[in-house]
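Input sequence (175 aa), recorded before submission:
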Amino acid sequence: MTVEIEDLVLPPPGRRQQKRDSTYWRARLKREAPAIYEQLERREIPSVNEATYRAGLQERPTRLKLMQGKWKGMTSAEKHQFVEWLKAQHGIASKAKGPPAARGTASLTGADGHFTGDAIGRLWDAMITRGKQPADVMEEIGRNRYETTFQEALMRRRKPRPELVDELTKWLSGA
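Predicted structure, token format:
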């Protein structure tokens, strides 16, 4: 099989390709599934996405994946509203008892040094209850609001330093 230069989709110089757009998928279909590509061109298949699913180049997103994608785009206030709606619709009671600060000071980090899932939940609950963003919390504990260590630790991209964990534990307890 030969590959024509016009079939190659290259990222701009100095940048890596981050997005898989229609042009990219059309080139792959033409190269890897020519029969399906021809059906797409004749408009027998309604969209590039549908063609990629039929060719096995992409999996159809599950409802869970779609919801997870929507969740990532929501603000913290929208997430809180959604969780409250979910609790009301399905009678789900929160595992947490009492206000966020009253739930004890169990270690915020696990054996791997990252925040535990429970700790992330407790921190977000406290921030939502107090109407704070991570930058506001950093400022309240005496740090630079533009320091991103807390946000990165919340997203589990970075391990929080022990001093930060101590300061956040105090902040959670309301001290």
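Checked by second reader. The mean pLDDT is 81.
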